[in-house]
Amino acid sequence: MIPALTGTVWFVGAGPGDPELITVKGRRLLEQAGAVLFAGSLVDQAATRYAPAACLIRDSKDMTLEEMTQWLTEQAHQHQTVVRLQTGDPALYGALIEMTRPLTAAGIAWAVVPGVSSAMASMAAAGESMTLPEVTQSVIFTRVEGRTPMPPGEDLAALAAHHTTLCIFLSITLLHKVEAGLRAAGWPDAAPMLVVHKASWPGEERIVRGTLADIKQRCRDAGIVSQAMVIASPTLGAAGWDQLVRSKLYDPAFTHRFRKAIT
Ligand code: SAH
C-alpha cells in the first residue's frame, strides 16, 4: 500500500513588507510550495513573487482558525511543502500555537522559519538603535489593551516603569492609551517617540517623529491610522546627541577575546 502523502506545513515569517526581507530559507520554501496560505495584504507580494505558477495561493483574511487548519491539513495531504506565510516573525502576535496544535493532532508535521519583525524594520527605517550603552540594554515588545485583554502586570504603565525601549504593536488607533501609560510611568512630555507606517514597504513607508506630548497629533496630521509600529525609547535621536557612551566592544582601551587594548 502506498502511504498517504503528508507534507510539512511551514510557518514562514514573510518579513515586514519588503519582499526582499524574507529569509533565504523562507524564499526557497515558497519556491517549492504546492500551496500557500497568506495572512492579508501585507504579505501577498512575497507569495505571488516567489511561489511557482502552479502553486495554490489563498488569502486567509476571510477564514476562521478552523477553516485555516482544515485547509492546511488538506493541502499537506496533497503537497510536500505547504507554506503558511505570516507578517514579520510568526512568533509575535501570529496565532501560531492555535494553528500548530490542530496540525499536531492531525498528525501533520510543521516547522517555523523566523522572519524580520516589523519592530526591527521600523528601527532600521529610522536609523535608530534599540539598545545603547548606559542608556538602555533591554527591549520590550508589547501592545496596549484593545479587544485582547492584557494579562495582569503587563499594562503599559508597569512595563514603561523600566524606561527601556518599548516596541508597541497593534496600537496606532490607541495612542491615547499609549500616552496615558507612559505618563503614568513618569515619562516626560519631551520623551522622544517614533511611529513607522508600513516599515520597509517600497514607496509606502512613512516615518513620524515626535514627543510624548505631540505624537498623537502628528500621526493624525499625517493620516496614519493603521499598519504602524509605535516606539518609545530613551535611545531615539541618539545619532544627533553631543555625548554618547561608547560600547566597550570597539573601545581601544578594552581588551577582549579577539583584541588587546591599545595602551
Ligand atoms: N508578526 C508581526 C506582527 C503582527 S501584529 C511582526 O513580527 O511584525 C500586526 C502589527 O504589527 C501591526 O498592528 C503593526 O503594529 C505591526 N506591523 C506589521 N507590519 C508592519 C510594518 N510593515 N510597519 C509597521 N508596523 C507593522
Describe this structure in words.
The chain has 263 residues and is of the alpha/beta class. The protein folds into two domains: 8-113, 3-Layer(aba) Sandwich (Cobalt-precorrin-4 Transmethylase, domain 1); 118-240, Tetrapyrrole methylase, C-terminal domain (Methyltransferase, Cobalt-precorrin-4 Transmethylase, Domain 2), CATH 3.30.950. It is built from eight helices and ten strands. The protein has helices at 24-32, 44-50, 65-76, 96-105, 118-126, 156-160, 175-184, 215-222, and strands at 8-13, 35-38, 56-59, 81-86, 109-113, 139-143, 165-169, 192-197, 206-211, 228-232. A five-stranded parallel β-sheet has the order 3-2-4-1-5, with helices on both faces. It has a five-stranded mixed β-sheet with strand order 6-7-10-8-9, sandwiched between helices. Helix 2 (44-50) links the parallel strand 2 (35-38) and strand 3 (56-59). It starts with 7 loop residues before the first strand and ends in a 31-residue tail after the last strand. Bound molecules: S-adenosyl-L-homocysteine. Residues 16-17, 42, 87-89, 92-94, 117-118, 121-122, 169-170, 196, 198-201, 227-229 line the site of S-adenosyl-L-homocysteine. S-adenosyl-L-homocysteine binds next to helix 5 and strand 10.
